[in-house]
Amino acid sequence: MSEDSRLEKTAKEVRRLADGYVQNEETESTSKEMQVRNRPYCSTSEGASGSEKDVAAHDGKSVDYFEALNSNLESLQQRAQQLIDEINESRKKDHTLMSNFRENLMLKVSELSQKLEEGMYEIYDHHNKLIQDTLHELPVIMERIAQLEADLKQVCQTVVTVYKDICVQPEM
Question: How far apart are CA 92 and CA 86, in angstroms?
Answer without folding.
Answer: 10
